[in-house]
Design brief:
The protein is of the alpha+beta class. The longest helix has 22 residues, at 147-168. The protein is built from 6 helices and 5 strands; from the N terminus they run H-H-H-H-E-E-H-H-E-E-E. It has a 5-stranded antiparallel β-sheet with strand order 1-2-3-4-5.
Length: 214
C-alpha cells in the first residue's frame, strides 16, 4: 500500500477535526502531522448491475463490501511503506458544434418593436473528455515491481468500463460523446437573437435572449 501525500488544506482540516476533540492539544506553527490513509478502490461504481439495481440492493452490496473491508487484518495483509508519490493528471476535452444542424421551422418574432421572421436552427454539440495519469514513486522496490504502473493501468481500465456503461445507459452516444441539443432563433437582419439549451435528456436548461441595438 502507498501512503498518499494529502494537500496542505486537507491535512489541516483532518488534524483540526481530530485535535478539537481533545482540548489539551492545539495546532501550532511548525507542528508535524503524520496521517496514514488506506484506500479501497470501489469496483461497484463500474458495475452496470449495481448501477441499475434498486436502492435496497445497492445498500446490500455496499454493506457486504464494507463488512469485508472491516473484517480484514491490516497488519497481516499489507506491508506498509512510507513512499513519496507525485500524481499528475492531464485533462483534455474537445467539442464539436453545430452537429446535424437543420432549420426546423420559422417563427414570427419582434425585435426592437418591429416584426421579423426568425429561422429556428436546431443542432447538437458533442463533447468528449480524456485524462492521462502518471505516478512518480520515490521507492526502488515499488518501481522495480511496477506497482505505480499497475495502479495507472487499473485506473484507466475502470474509467473505460465506466464510459462503456455510460454508453449503454444512454448518457453518452456510441462514439463516447455527451450530446446536448440547442435551438437558435436566427433573424437575417440581426443574426441570432435567442438561444435555448437542452440537457442530455431533452430538458430545457437555459434560455438566452440577445437584444441588439436599435
Amino acid at each position: 500500500m502507498i501512503k498518499h501525500a494529502l494537500p496542505a488544506f486537507a491535512v489541516a482540516l483532518i488534524a483540526a477535526n481530530a485535535f478539537c476533540q481533545n482540548e489539551k492539544l492545539q495546532i501550532h506553527d511548525g507542528m508535524t502531522i503524520s496521517i496514514d490513509v488506506l484506500t479501497y478502490p470501489n469496483p461497484l461504481i463500474a458495475d452496470l448491475k449495481f448501477l441499475k439495481a434498486s436502492p435496497g440492493k445497492r445498500a446490500e452490496a455496499v454493506g457486504a463490501r464494507n463488512a469485508d473491508i472491516l473484517a480484514r487484518d491490516m497488519g497481516s495483509f499489507y506491508e506498509i511503506w512510507d513512499v513519496n508519490v507525485r500524481k499528475t493528471v492531464t485533462v483534455s476535452s474537445h467539442t464539436l458544434n453545430n452537429v446535424k444542424a437543420i432549420v426546423s421551422r420559422t417563427e414570427p418574432i419582434t425585435v426592437n418593436g418591429k416584426p421579423y421572421t426568425a429561422y429556428v436552427i436546431e443542432s447538437q454539440s458533442w463533447s468528449k473528455g480524456a485524462s492521462n495519469t502518471t505516478l512518480d514513486v520515490a521507492h526502488d522496490y515499488a518501481n522495480k515491481k511496477g506497482l505505480a504502473a499497475d495502479l495507472v493501468i487499473k485506473e484507466k481500465a475502470m474509467l473505460e468500463k465506466q464510459t462503456k456503461n455510460a454508453v449503454k445507459m444512454g448518457m453518452l452516444n456510441e462514439d463516447g460523446y455527451q450530446v446536448l441539443t440547442k435551438e437558435e432563433w436566427f433573424v437575417p437582419e440581426y443574426g441570432v437573437v435567442k438561444l435555448r439549451n437542452y440537457d442530455t435528456y431533452g430538458s430545457i436548461t437555459t434560455d438566452v435572449v440577445i437584444k441588439p441595438g436599435a
